Amino acid sequence: MGPPAKLVPFLLLAKSSRGAAAADLVLKAIEAPGVYVFGELLAQPSIAALQQSHPPAFALLQLFAYGTLAEYSKLPEPRPTLTSTMIHKLRLLTLISLAHTSRVLSYDLLLRQLQLDSSAVRDLEDLFIEAMYDNLIKATIDQRRRELHVESAVGRDVAPADLDQIAATLKQWCDVTTAVLETIDDSMKNAVALAGEAHAAEQKLATDLKTVLDKKDSKSKDKAIHGNDFGMLAAFMGAGGQ
Fold it and tell me: Name one GO cellular component term (predicted).
């Protein structure tokens, strides 16, 4: 899967940009409409070099790739000034991150995390609508309860520092899945064995029943034969007496 289409022009420009031009390219990419992932841009050698030549620009790009609005104040000085466009996009990115933490997000929490005034409920709901329209989140708005009910959210870039934790989580998931599959396999083997035992018992019961019925039938035939012989003898003796 390739990079998002709207990021591609910046990736192409990054190949020939250096120093201040690359730093300016970062700012343009951050403000560009529809660009919400930046991992491929960070991986470009000319952009990675900004960590040494233009640290503020590189730190800002990392913030938009992995961070949230609340983390802006933690950037080392001198911090780049955020334009209104940048703040708005960072709010959308923060909303995505929050959507991954809980299925139900209260307005109060979101107003704090998105650094909106407590009375700016309409602005908050407009942000929800924009995020849903841009397919950043799938959710429903509960105005009565003042909650956002999240169904899903797009993924964000993964920070290198988080890779070990993700790998550990995936390994744990694989271990649990393997254990479950082994349990299912054992259960299936037991079920097959029990089915075999039940079939064998059924066959034995049928054989035993047939044996009993055969013996009963044989006795009935013997009794019938002896009864006929006795009847014939009685008839013969009766005829002789006459």
Answer: COP9 signalosome
For residues 104 and 146, the answer to whether their CB atoms sit within 8 Å is: no
Query: Is the pLDDT assigned to residue 235 strictly greater than 70?
Result: no
Burial string for 42-53 (b: 16+ CB within 10 Å, else e) reads bebebbeebeee
pTM of the model: 0.70
CA atoms within 13 A on the CB side of 97: 23
Residue 235 lies inside a defined structural domain of this protein: no
pLDDT tens column, 4-31? 899 999 999 999 999 999 999 999 999 9
Structural domain range at position 86: 79-157
Q: Are 30 and 5 in contact (CB under 8 A)?
A: no
As a whole number of Å, the end-to-end CA separation of the chain is: 115
**Residue 160: is its pLDDT beyond 90?**
no
Helices (H), the chain: 8-14, 19-31, 39-42, 45-48, 50-53, 55-66, 84-99, 107-113, 121-133, 163-241
* Domain co-membership, 137 together with 169: no
* Strand order from edge to edge, sheet including 137-142: 104-106, 147-153, 137-142
The most confident of the ranges 117-121, 175-179, 187-191 is 117-121
